[in-house]
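Final report, Chapter 2: Outcomes

The project's central promise was a pipeline that accepts a single protein chain and returns its three-dimensional structure in a standardized token representation, suitable for archiving and comparison. That pipeline is now operational. To close this chapter, we reproduce one record exactly as it appears in the project archive, with the input sequence first and the structure output second.
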Amino acid sequence: MKNAIKEAFRDSLHILPGYLVLGLGFGVLMGSRGFGFLPVLLSSVFIYAGSMQYVGVDLLSSSASLITAFFMTVMVNIRHLFYGIGMLKKYRDMKMGKLYSIFALTDETFSLVCNKDMSGLDESYYFYVSLFDQIWWVSGSLLGSILGDVLPFDSAGIDFSMTALFIVIVVEQWKANKDHLPVILTFLISISCLILFGRDDFLILAMALIVIMLMGIRKIRGEKDA
């Protein structure tokens, strides 16, 4: 377990700078809309979905209905369905913190654990890397909340920070993997749906088509390997 803790902490340091900056931006943005320290803390502990937390600022400040909040949450976070499918085998035999690890499987944590070489490590690694990543996020959020009350900040453009992080993750995954076909097809499907259905209606359909595409690729390659 000690090896798992040390490895998880070391790997989480790759996420630390981004989460501190993004969390700080979230805390500042919440403060600019009139939300104090406690809402920032509760959001980062119990929601812990960076992009949805940013979207949630506008939902909260505009007093959006529960139905609107529900569908917006599904649309923004439906990508986690794919992460969950990808981690089924890895999390199946976990004896420690399985439910928490499922809850805390963010984009950045997934990027660490999806291709992790587990030689010499037990499954507790997944729990600890998830825990450390959330600690960095909560720390950044609280720091932003505190500094936002003390220092003057212009919050314009802060909500773009999550988009920038996603771009960085895609680039890193592109560089780390030789197989670029799924990424290219995913991009083409997303752009096509955006053009055909518009920015407000394209996401769910695009994600559904991407799932079908990935399953098709997996089946075809499985049949070839067999």
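Archive annotation: Residues 2-156 form one domain.
This record, like all others produced under the grant, will remain available to the consortium after the project formally closes.
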